[in-house]
Amino acid sequence: MDNKEELFHIRNENRQLQAESEKVSHPDFYINDETLEELQKFCQDFDPYRDLDLETKFRLQEFGIIDLSNPFDITNKLLLLLENNLQYRIKLQENK
């Protein structure tokens, strides 16, 4: 269990460093390309109706999902995060 918690903290530290290094102002929902790819992979394997293990709970918290009591709500928040980020990237490409 300590290894999972340690990995969680390392990922958080890496994300904080990445966020500090990005100078461009993005909306609050924005996640970088690497994190977006991780989110897409996570969503492909994620079943909100199964019991959530500690690693899955940590991953959901990394994506800003704190309330884990409602599987439907978890799914909606994940989809909204994906959709907002994909649409934002499309909008950026159109404005170039």
Overview of this protein structure:
The chain has helices at residues 2-21, 33-45, 54-62, 71-95. With 96 residues, the chain is mainly alpha-helical.
How do the strands and helices of this protein lay out in sequence?
Blueprint: H1 2-21, H2 33-45, H3 54-62, H4 71-95
Give, in order, the helices and strands.
HHHH
Our estimate of the beta-strand percent is under 5%
Helix content: 55-70%
End-to-end span in angstroms?
46 Å
C-alpha-based Rg, rounded: 14 Å
Q: How many beta strands in the DSSP annotation?
A: 0
Q: Major sheet: size, sense and barrel closure?
A: none
Annotation field: number of helices = 4
Total domains, how many? 1
Summarize the structure.
The chain is mainly alpha-helical and 96 residues long.
Properties at a glance:
4 helices; mainly alpha; 0% strand; 96 residues; globular
